[in-house]
């Protein structure tokens, strides 16, 4: 069984002006597709063939760098498209909002830590809101690493590789992450993942 590139859950122009058609055409149609194609080539005839993407990510971490890199980026991006939606509402669902306030003090404090994690990630990587040992945490990972390999469950992630934002924001990574949080995040999907992780 091979992995396939998931369709975007919205039109390429649906996230404008915060994320452009051109960015989605490059990011989804080219970058994500390249990870999927490379992964399928790498796992053919190996022990990684025919198992779930999450199991490939966890099992290959520290053991097979090329497989891990492409599997983790495939997984990260599969989540990433669903973490965004057109006309996203700013308010967090009640249960999620209560947990964020309990663990961070306020929604804005969580957002500040999330932005700082993304800005502070040198080079390519991701910033995350994750659940670990029952607590909500912000973390950052280099390259394509996913919180799963550190025993945490990701409930929100933002891609801070330059291809994710350079067309629209050039070198203004903080503005990109703030726009993501304030205008694009599908908080209902984050809430669903939080309930599964809790």
What does this protein look like?
With 198 residues, this protein is mainly α. The protein folds into two domains: 21-83, Orthogonal Bundle (Helix Hairpins), CATH 1.10.287; 94-197, 3-Layer(bab) Sandwich (minor pseudopilin epsh fold), CATH 3.55.40. Helices cover 51% and strands 12% of the residues. It has helices spanning 21-43, 53-60, 65-82, 94-104, 107-120, 166-169, 173-184, 187-197; strands at residues 125-132, 135-142, 153-159. A three-stranded antiparallel beta sheet has the order 2-1-3. A hairpin with a 2-residue loop joins strand 1 (125-132) and strand 2 (135-142). Helix 1 (21-43) runs antiparallel to helix 3 and helix 2 crosses helix 3 (65-82). The longest helix is centred in the N-terminal third of the chain and has 23 residues, at 21-43. The model has no long low-confidence stretch (mean pLDDT 97). InterPro entries: Mn/Fe_SOD, Mn/Fe_SOD_BS, Mn/Fe_SOD_C, Mn/Fe_SOD_N, Mn/Fe_SOD_N_sf, SOD_C_sf. It is an enzyme of class 1 (oxidoreductase). Destroys radicals which are normally produced within the cells and which are toxic to biological systems.
